[in-house]
Every structure is written in structure tokens, then in C-alpha cells.
């Protein structure tokens, strides 16, 4: 493999050009200097390998912050870190994945119970699913009814996402915005759904945040 321009690197790694530029802004990779005689910046084989590292780590569920820490260990002097440090971080991520699996199983059990109790016909006033959702979930509930009143879901149409890495970037940008309570992003549908406190952030502010990361963003629809 020879030294390549940013476009060729993007094709080889399987990401968009803006994704590489985003990694540069996050200091995950270094931006090559522009040639004195002019022309395109040239990326080395080492940078391409680093990008493959970032992509694979994202596919395994590591956040950009965690990937930066892993790269720090990778770049550190051998006397400062060893394989046990990396293994501990991988184990921590594995435990995190196991916890999420347990949570998803609990959610599935709850949904299955609701579906089983639903007669599937009749007026909405007799809907057992609505009745169950309206019941209080107890003192440990993370979202109160008063908080739900101020919540809304904003849908954004996002252009320029090509892979799971793009999803992670957009998700990270959205989750960092004040007033965002949660979000889902799909590069396949080109859409993001963001739960927000509408008193703290607007749909246009969310779109601008995504554009600042190098993607296009348009407001699709706002629902309660």
C-alpha cells in the first residue's frame, strides 16, 4: 500500500471523508501537513492502520473516548503500559455489554407480558397496554410524568453517514447537547430520533450541532 489522499483512505477504510476529518478534530489521528509545493495532503500507511483500529473498536462497542484511551495505551512507552491494561478495558466493555443484554431481556419480558395481556380488539378505552403504561413505575422511576410533559422527539434526516462509525459520531454529538435525554441513529435510514427537553434546546440547534460534525441535517418532523 502506498501513501494516499484522504479520498482514497476513506474508500479503503470504509468511512466518509468527513468522518476522517472528525477524527482529526478529536485528535484520534493526526492531519498530515500540506505539501510545500502544493497539492493534496498525503496519509501514511500508519494512519490507515490507525483508522482500521478505530473502526474495529467502534464495531465492538467502544466509545470515542474509550478508543482515545486505547490509542493512548497503544502509543505509550512499553514501560508505562502492558497487555493487562488493554485486557482490563476489554473486560470492562464486556461487562457493560452483558449489562445491556440483561436490560434488553428485561425490556423484552415486559413487552411480551403486555402483548400477551392485550385482547387485540375492542375500543382503546379497554386497551390493557395503555392501562399498564399509565401505571406508576414506583419511586425508582427515572422519568416522572411531569418530565414527560416537557419531552418531545425530534426527527432529523442526516446525510453523509456511511457506516456504524458515522452513527457513533452523530450519536456522540447529539448526546453532548444540553437537554438531550437520549437518541437513536441509523446510517441505513439516514435518520436520527432525539428525545429532548424542549425548554432547553430547539430542533434547529440539534441540526446545527450535527452539521458542525460534517454531516448535513434537516428537521423531518416533531412528535410528542
Verbal overview:
This protein is α+β, with helices and mostly antiparallel strands and 224 residues long. The protein folds into three domains: 6-75, Multidrug-efflux Transporter Regulator, Chain: A, Domain 2, CATH 1.10.1660.10; 82-117; 148-223, Alpha-Beta Plaits (2-Layer Sandwich). 50% of the residues lie in helices and 14% in strands. It has helices at 6-13, 17-25, 45-59, 64-75, 83-117, 128-134, 145-149, 164-175, 203-212, and strands at residues 151-159, 180-186, 191-197, 216-223. Strands 2-3-1-4 form a four-stranded antiparallel beta sheet. A hairpin with a 4-residue loop joins strand 2 (180-186) and strand 3. The longest helix has 35 residues, at 83-117. 20% of the residues are buried. Mean pLDDT is 81; it is low at 139-150.
Features:
alpha+beta, Multidrug-efflux Transporter Regulator, Chain: A, Domain 2, 9 helices, four-stranded antiparallel beta sheet, globular, 224 residues, Alpha-Beta Plaits
Largest beta-sheet details: 4 strands, antiparallel
User: pLDDT under 50 segments (min length 5)?
Assistant: 139-150
Helical residue percent band: 40-55%
Rg, Å, rounded: 22 Å
- How far apart the termini lie comes to 52 Å
Number of strands: 4
* Number of self-contained structural domains: 3
Shape: globular
CATH topology of the largest domain: Alpha-Beta Plaits
Strand arrangement across the biggest beta sheet: 2-3-1-4
Beta-strand portion reads 5-15%
How many helical stretches? 9
Derived from helix and strand composition plus strand pairing, the structural class reads alpha+beta
Architecture per CATH nomenclature, i.e. the level-2 architecture of the largest domain: 2-Layer Sandwich
Mean pLDDT metric: 81
Order of helices and strands: HHHHHHHEHEEHE
Amino acid at each position: 500500500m502506498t501513501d494516499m489522499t484522504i479520498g482514497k483512505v476513506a474508500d479503503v477504510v470504509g468511512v466518509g471523508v468527513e468522518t476522517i476529518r472528525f477524527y482529526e478534530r478529536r485528535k484520534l489521528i493526526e492531519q498530515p501537513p500540506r505539501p510545500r509545493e502544493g497539492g493534496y495532503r498525503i496519509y501514511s500507511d500508519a494512519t490507515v492502520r490507525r483508522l482500521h483500529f478505530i473502526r474495529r473498536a467502534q464495531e465492538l462497542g467502544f466509545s470515542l473516548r474509550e478508543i482515545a484511551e486505547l490509542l493512548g495505551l497503544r502509543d505509550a512507552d512499553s514501560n508505562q503500559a502492558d497487555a493487562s491494561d488493554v485486557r482490563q478495558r476489554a473486560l470492562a466493555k464486556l461487562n457493560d455489554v452483558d449489562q445491556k443484554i440483561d436490560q434488553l431481556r428485561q425490556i423484552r419480558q415486559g413487552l411480551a407480558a403486555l402483548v400477551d395481556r392485550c385482547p387485540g380488539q375492542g375500543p382503546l378505552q379497554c386497551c390493557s397496554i395503555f392501562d399498564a403504561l399509565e401505571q406508576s413505575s414506583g419511586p425508582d422511576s427515572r422519568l416522572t410524568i411531569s418530565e414527560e410533559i416537557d419531552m418531545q422527539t425530534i426527527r432529523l434526516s442526516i446525510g453523509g453517514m456511511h457506516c456504524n462509525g458515522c452513527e457513533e459520531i452523530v450519536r456522540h454529538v447529539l448526546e453532548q447537547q444540553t437537554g438531550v435525554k437520549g437518541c437513536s441513529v441509523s446510517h441505513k435510514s439516514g435518520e436520527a430520533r432525539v428525545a429532548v427537553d424542549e425548554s432547553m434546546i430547539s430542533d434547529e440547534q440539534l441540526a446545527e450541532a450535527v452539521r458542525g460534525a460534517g454531516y448535513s441535517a434537516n428537521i423531518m418532523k416533531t412528535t410528542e
